[in-house]
Amino acid sequence: MVCQGGILAAKEMRINGKIREREIRLIDQNGNQAGIIATIEAIDMARDLGLDLVEVSPHARPPVCKLLNYGKYKYELEKKSREQKKNSSQVRLKEVRMQPKIEQHDMNFKARHVQEFLEQGNKVKVTVRFRGREFAHTELGKAKLDKILEHLGGDSYKVDNPPKMEGRFMSMLLSPKSKA
After folding, report:
1. For a tag on the chain, would you pick the N or C end, based on fewer CB atoms within 10 A?
2. Residue 128, exposed/middle/buried by CB under 10 A (0-12, 13-18, 19+)?
3. Model-level pTM?
4. 46 by DSSP, 3-state: which?
5. Cis before 163 (ω within 30)
6. At residue 69, does pLDDT exceed 50?
7. Residue 114 CA to chain centroid, in angstroms?
């Protein structure tokens, strides 16, 4: 069962006749505890008020149920989850690849791309790929990564992983500085 904020997701909640427990802890429509009562009584009470009996905490003993309008409750839960999604920012990982023998103009072009990705709030993995005899001169790749950092300036990013070798690749991970 998926739980969101201590309350079951709307799809997994049991309502009215689907509640199989004999006794429940009832919370009335005003939010006051009505105590522990038989499930059948609570369902009748809900029907009389034109509301639904919704099991909000099935793992408690006895389970906690509320008298409420289920459609409205479901709508409120969906509205909250949409709001949370809207407020959360998704950080994507972008990758910029190059070779150690990259020309200056091309490197400036790649550095501008890295800068744009950081400004958009994305993390950036800058990778230098070594082929053949280039593998003997990894210091050239380190120099290229240092030039990228030099081009960016020191105020717009933070180095999460400094340059290191991973097989035939040397890479570093940059993330944007938080806007506090």
Report:
1. C
2. buried
3. 0.52
4. helix
5. no
6. yes
7. 23
Per-residue pLDDT, averaged over 145-157, amounts to 84
**What are the CB-based long-range contacts (under 8 Å, 24+) for 108-117?**
108/151, 110/148, 111/147, 111/148, 111/151, 111/152, 114/148, 114/152, 114/174, 115/151, 115/152, 115/156
- Give CA torsion, residues 21, 27, 28, 32, to 10 deg: 160
DSSP-assigned beta bridge partners for residue 3: 8
First vs last Cα of the chain: how many Å apart? 37
Q: What is the CATH number of domain 93-176?
A: 3.30.110.10
Which residue's structure tokens are 């509301």? 51
Instruction: Give the integer Cα–Cα distance in Å for 52 and 58.
Output: 16
CATH topology of domain 3-85: Ubiquitin-like (UB roll) (3.10.20)
C-alpha dihedral sign at 154, 156, 161, 163: negative
Question: For residue 172, what pLDDT is reported?
Answer: 93
Domain range list for the chain? 3-85, 93-176
The one-character DSSP state at 158 is E
Parallel/antiparallel/unpaired status of strands 169-176 and 157-166:
antiparallel
